[in-house]
Every structure is written in C-alpha cells, then in structure tokens.
Amino acid sequence: MEKMPQWADVVLVPLVSLLLASIISAFVILAIGESPWAALKLMVNGALGSSYGWGYTLYYATNFMFTGLAVAVAFHARMFNIGGEGQAILGGLGVALVCLYIPWPHWSLALIGATLGAALFGAAWALIPAFLQAKRGSHIVITTIMFNFIAAALLNYLLVNQLKAPGMEPATPKFAQATHLPSFQDMFSFGDTVLFRGTPANVAFFVAVLACIAVWVLIWKTRLGYEIRAFGHSESAAKYAGISPTKIIVVSMLISGGLAGMMAVNNVMGEAERLVLNAVEGAGFIGIAVALMGRSHPFGVFLAAILFGFLYQGGAELALWTSIPREMIVVIQALVIMFTGALDNMVRAPLEKAFIAFSKSHAKAEG
C-alpha cells in the first residue's frame, strides 16, 4: 500500500498542524485586542533576534529534548509515559547527590557522573510502573501520573528535612565550583565579543543532541530497537516471534525514565547549580507535545523541542511587552497537541491522498 515518504510524516505533517494551530491562535489574539502579526514579530525578535534570546530558547529546548525523547521511546513500545515530570524530579535528586557528595576534580568528570546519576534515578522511578504494567496489568498512564505526585512529595520532604541548606529556602547547598558546567557565554565569547550574556544555556545542550543521536541508533539500528518497534506495532505478532512483552515493557520504560531524568543535568547542574523545588517546571508534560509533534522520531523531537523553546521564550516576551498573558502559550501548545494528536488523521489523510495522487500521475507520465 502506497503512503507518504518518511520525511513528509516527520516534517510536513507537523508543519501543517502547526500552521493550523497558529491560525486559530491568531484569531484568539485578535479577540484579545492585539495584532497577531505584531505578536509574532515580538516573539521572533525576543526568542531568535539576539544571542540572549537564543540562549533562553536553547536552554528550554534542551529540557524538552530529554523529556520528548523519553515519551518517544515509550511511544515506540505503544506505551504512554506521562511520568516524565516525576522521573525528571528524581533525576534532579540523583544529580544533587552526585554533585554534593563526590569530590569531582573537573566539570567534565562531574558531567559524566551526574548524567549517570540522573539516568539511574529517573530509570528507577520508571521501574515500578513498568513492573506493574508488565506483571499486574496496571495501566501505565495511571501509575506514572500517580508517581509524579509521589516524586514531588518526596522531593519536598527531602529538601525541607534532609538536604536543606541553611536559610529559609527549601534547596540544597550550592554545588562545588568544580561541578559547574560551562555556559554558552563561557564557550562562545571571544575577546570583547560576549555572546549569550546572562543566559542559562550550557553544555548540556550538546548532551541532549547526543541523546537524540543515541535514541535514533537504538530504535532503528539495533536488535533491541527492532523488538521495541515490533512490540509497538503488534504485541501478539511480537510474542509469536519470541519477543518477551515483559522485557520490552520494562526495558523501554527504563530507557524512557532515564532520558527524562537526564533533563536534570541541564536545569539542576547547568542552570541552578543546586536542587530546588519546582525545578522541572512542567517540562515533563511538554515532552508529550514534543514527542507527538516530532512523530516520535529523534530528528522530529529535536525540531519540536526548538519550536517549544521558541514558544516559551517568545511567550515571556509577549507577557512582558503586551497585554497578552503568558498563558496564551499554553493555548498554542494545547492547539498543537490537538492537531498533532487528536486530529492527526484530519491533517494526515489529505496529505497522504495528495502524495498518492502525485506518485500515480508521475508514474503515468514516465510510463
């Protein structure tokens, strides 16, 4: 059966969905009494018009890459991991323990240790829901949502009672200087030219890019990735082929949780340089939209994460300079999710027909 090429599925379908979401958002902005064109220009200039804007855009995008990849891996095994928020919270705990209690001689070694700690804690938090799904039939959506709240309560307890630094704020002490990651300002400033001044973007961005490449290799170039995709397409066929459902569910969720936990390398180690409450700031849930829009493909996740980073930073500029509330970005995100998720077939079906008709006419012309 003929179908769209993969590039169209990964790039074109999300772009059309984004366009439709943008058109509806423009009408909402008009209803508020603001100019959609002026709002768009302000967002573009605020998020992409300077190295300062790019610094914040890429900082947010780094978070969304990790959580988007986490959701994407679970999607390939036909599981909906809504626990990225809790797994990222526990990943932050792993980063804090590694950075506070191990005397690292250099940030590069601390980065490796913190990445492993974050992945381990995030994976551990995903293990129990995975086991309950595999062995008890508990729905992964319900258990991962519940574990988000448990993770938040656990972190609150630890920061108030066990790890709290002297003072009023529930937060750990600052990490040692040797664990501080190079910021983009440190990396891309030359002489009197200072780029990304004062922005939180840091070397964790490149870790996120490497994670995208690693997930692509895993899913499309390894036997385990083939088994995950086979299980996701048909559990009964996978079982017939000798693939263990328990193994795939548990391993997929461990990888997913580990990726979500790795987000903490960016926000806990790279930006705050300590563990604070609410450090995740909803990035676990944004990862769902990023994975949907990116079609669960690492390259698509990368592009979608940049887009949502742009929306976050551009939304902050809108709230600062216009009467448009920052919550408007939540509306745009919801519209993107609606078109890329619930109304996916409304966009996909006409595009598939167009590609099929074009290929047939092209074949006739050549014949």
Order of helices and strands: HHHHHHHHHHHHHHHH
Give the low-pLDDT segments. Answer: none
Major sheet details:
none
* Backbone CA Rg: 22 Å
- What fraction, in percent, of the residue positions are helical? over 70%
Mean pLDDT: 90
Percentage of residues in DSSP E strands: under 5%
Number of strands: 0
Could you tell me how far the N terminus lies from the C terminus, measured between alpha carbons in angstroms?
20 Å
- The gross shape turns out to be globular
Query: Helical element count?
Result: 16
What do these coordinates show?
- The protein has a domain at 63-304.
- The chain is mainly α and 367 residues long.
- The chain is built from 16 helices and no strands.
- The protein has helices at residues 6-32, 36-48, 51-76, 84-101, 107-136, 140-161, 184-187, 204-221, 223-233, 235-240, 245-261, 264-272, 283-293, 298-321, 327-342, 344-366.
- It is globular.
Brief synopsis:
The protein is mainly alpha-helical. The protein contains 16 helices and no strands.
